[in-house]
Amino acid sequence: MGALRAVEAVARLGTLRLAAGELGVTPGAVSQQIIKAEAQLDRKLFERQPKGLVPTPVGQDIADHLTEGFSALARGVAATRLRTTDAITISVAPVFAGKWLVRRLGRFMEAHPGIRVRIEASVELVQPQTAGIDACIRVGAGGWEHVRAEEMLPLRVFPVCAPAVAERLNDLADLRDVSIIRDRYSVLGWDCWLKPNGMTEDQLGDGPVFSDASLCLDAAVAGQGVFLAWESLAEDALAADCLVAPFPGRFEVGYSYWFVEDEKAPPTPQIDGFRLWLIEELRNGQAV
Prior knowledge:
The chain is α/β, with parallel strands linked by helices. It contains 10 helices and 10 strands.
């Protein structure tokens, strides 16, 4: 069973590292399980390439059946759990959990005192049910396979900064003369906000670079420059006047917040209640 789980995880996630993270073992252990599975099945399941392991046709066929089988097992276990407890497990990116969701969970618990929520913060693209997760909150363009995804709210970006920095920003041209805070791993570049305003990112100056959006926001609060934020990230700091939006205009970037469940998972009142509450909270915050 361990070898089969390794085959399924590597084929689905694409790398030994990601599979090892999901299974809670080392990449070397996953590699050994792959070798074991190939020996037991007497079939070559993966091609060893410089970029990693690529499933052979027979390996992909086996992996597809394994994914379906493990999903069915996970749904069976989840159904048993839901009959005995009202706890739900939600996977979400750490920045969204820390800067937005955790601060609002008290309101959900007040409205639904019989439902306990477990938050699993992860930067990986977790597959619901297969990973023991009831639902995921994802940001993206949608179109994921083997899931049921409901679009909750389009992602909109805009510059934010501390009030003292905003005093130096009388018009867009002033952005050339202030420090620009950047998120090293963000897929959202400044051009998605600047181009509708007739500028491009190469006209901006340098500034501190961080590997996490929450650190970028903290740097903006500390007055270290201007950061291109989105609503759920900056909402509380704007409401508390720790940050201001020095220019009008919030532009959609082609990504949205999605509520994601396994495509075969039966609906439950616990998950439906959380989903509806989450959508209402997100849309209420959009007006900040």
